[in-house]
Amino acid sequence: MNRVPWISRVAAVASLGDENRRRLFDVVTAAPDAVGRDDAAAALGMARSTASFHLDRLVRDGLLAVEFRKLGGKEGPGSGRPAKLYRAAVEEVSASVPERNYDLAAELLVSAVEDSAADGGSARDALLRAARVRGGAAADAAGADDFPSVLVAEGYQPADDGEGGLVLLNCPFHRVAQGHAGVVCAMNGAFLGGAAAACGVDPARVEALDIEQLRADGAASPVQCCARILPA
Fold first, then answer.
1. Is the pTM for the entire model greater than 0.70?
2. DSSP string, the chain
């Protein structure tokens, strides 16, 4: 699945910092059906114009969606104009600074446990298979055959290493990798290899190292990814 761009998720979370918008968002998401401006305003004792302004801002920030529907079951001429209604556009929204993707790590790890339990195979092998497949799917979902663009979309922050390769300045799995580098760095390398292959890049160019050792040697920043992309 192609994730919503990081900057859009940050903006959405920031939008809910306004108390009126947060309360309106809660009203709409808790309702069993789409909510009109009048009902939302009445639920909070808020002026209709104020509710309308903030609801439309939530739409622009990607948190709510709009639909138009005639209410009261009336259709045809004389039934009036369709009402503007609001409903949730997302089940949840989260953002971290720097960007992280712990949901992906959890999904891959759970998938590996399920697969190994089903066939009695190695959980580690199942994890690497799942990560490679998911990496390829991420590249396809991004609609890009440009590997660096896919890396940007996934939050890795690629930078030229001065030798024709790339270093990845951000680790999307940073906290999970603490104390579990052997598993997480291997998973990360498989994910990047799958994405590389989908972009027509030789997966052998993806080199995943032990990030804990790199940091201990002073060869990596505290948030740098364990992997690098070797020159072609």
1. yes
2. -PPPPHHHHHHHHHHTTSHHHHHHHHHHHHSSS-EEHHHHHHHHT--HHHHHHHHHHHHHTTSEEEEEE-STT--STTS-PPEEEEEES-S-----SS---HHHHHHHHHHHHHHHHHH---HHHHHHHHHHHHHHHHHHHHT---HHHHHHHTT--EEE-SSS-EEE---TTHHHHTT-HHHHHHHHHHHHHHHHHHTT--GGGEEE--HHHHHHTT-S-TT--SEEE---
- When comparing pLDDT for 69 and 111, which is higher? 111
What digits encode the pLDDT tens for the residues 22-47? 999 999 999 999 999 999 999 999 99
Q: In this structure, which amino acid lies at residue 119?
A: D
> What is the tens place of the pLDDT at every residue in 129-151?
999 999 999 999 887 779 999 99
**Token pair of 212 as six digits:** 């804990």
Q: What mean pLDDT is reported for the chain?
A: 88
pLDDT at 226 over 90: no
Structure tokens belonging to residue 59: 């739409």
List domains and CATH numbers for the chain.
Answer: 6-88 (1.10.10.10), 102-229 (no CATH)
Instruction: Report d(CA 154, CA 142) in Å as an integer.
Output: 9
Look at the alpha carbons of 196, 181, 112, 141 in this order and tell me if their dihedral is positive or negative: negative
Q: Which of 74-83, 95-104, 164-173 bottoms out in mean pLDDT, i.e. has the lowest?
A: 74-83
Q: What's CA 3's distance to the chain center, in Å?
A: 4
